[in-house]
Design a protein that fits this description.
324 residues, Rossmann fold, eight-stranded mixed sheet, 45% helix, NAD(P)-binding domain,Short-chain dehydrogenase/reductase, conserved site,Short-chain
Amino acid sequence: MIQFVLNSLKIIQYQILYYFLGFFAIIDDLKNREHNKFNIVSKRGKVAVITGGARGIGLEVVKKLAQCGMHIIIGCRNIEAGQKIFQQQIFSDVSIEIYELDLKSFTSVSRFAQKILFRHNQVHLLINNAGVMFVPYEKCEDGYEAHWTINYLSHFLLTELLLPVLKTSGSNNENARIINVSSCAHEASPLIDFDKISKRKGYIPTAAYAKSKLAQLISTKYYDKKLSNSNVQVLAVHPGIVDTELFNGTLLKKTMPWILRYICKTPEEGSRCITYACVSPKLEGHGGYYANCQSVKNLPYADDDKIQLELYNTSKVMVEHFLM
């Protein structure tokens, strides 16, 4: 009974914290609206890989990368649905490949990477975009909690598998880039307890989501330092508070769905900073954390060298079977 009460209080605490974070993030989006702009940059002949590119923000990113002339490889769970979308007239001249990718499965991630590497000897851009938010407790195929697996760990594995080709695709004049779509929600995360990542007891969806987004940011900071001399740079992006399917099931969507149209960015607006991080020459050689096409601050915890290394080593152990 006591544990139930304590857990209920924590849930309320997270709800309040999210409302505060969301409020200030919306204010920031409105205040910096004029900075949230994307300019087309020619990237003809370059290859981009994106997860979750068939809907929401990811689809809008694909549209912008297509305007840049890139060849785009999309990983999505439902290939048939993705193919229907990209059969539209707007994509008639766009060079696109679509492969199955289920981020709940490391086997699926590995197969996706193998298909890419079999067909391409260069990858200039990796966008780790797909994700889930506030889902009920679930252990995925490989034994880890869903937020951790889908938002962070499967993308970590994909990054590791594609890293060799990313390194050889970058040059002294133009780095290859890895973009992790994170969130201001990382600020709500408790410090990561690596021994309790997938525990069911005391599970709180809002805490699990925040933790996965913090892990993305910590990983970004670690990789960007680690790869500083290898023609690869790594950036994390908070796209803003965007009205997408991620809000399905949330209290706000259930009680006041109409309000999201007025206070949130559209998926197109949310895609601008992501695409800016992907192609802007202004960011050449500059990794880090961005929102509204500007560098922003993150939790100091994400900059701790020991935490970064512990997360990296722990993550490698979790996926080691698929890195052999």
